Amino acid sequence: MQIHPHSQFEHRPNRHREEGLQRLLDGLIKTMQRDELVRQTTNQLRESLQVDRVVLYYFYGQWQGQVTFESLSSQEFSILGSTGPDDCFNNEYAALYLAGRVRAIADIELESIQACHRDFLSNMQVRANLVVPILIPRGLWGLLAAHHCQGPRSWSSLDIEMMQTQAKTLATDPNILES
């Protein structure tokens, strides 16, 4: 039997590399599973609510976020990557959503909202808006929003309940809790 003094050093980098690759692969799988759940959720909501757009607005920083997912009735309604007005969403609004606020606006032209909020929604072609928070133990992870772009829309209690149920499903998914 021959002992090769370098053989144990040759295997150690491979083992560390394999462990690193496995961690990377596990992370990618979790990300793909999370993304697929969000994609399915936004698609199901858009079809069930019969709206033009359902989006996930994800917070990547202290009240800074962007639209990271969208389900569209037509590509003309795409707002993917939109970040929203910095001066509109502040600690006051964040506190409301942290407390579980649901915001249903039947017609942005008739609703009593801040001008910056109305302009923001109008620029995105929104006429009616339904927003529910996605709350995880760490706080406000994101907002799930349904947009009706072609005219006013009254939101039913069933519409609101459906959005809240889907937001809770997202908020309890292990892949979202870890992200």
Automatic annotation (TrEMBL):
A UniProt-annotated Pfam family: GAF
The Phytochrome chromophore attachment site domain, residue ranges: 33-163
SUPFAM superfamilies, per database record: GAF domain-like
Protein name as it appears in the record: GAF domain-containing protein
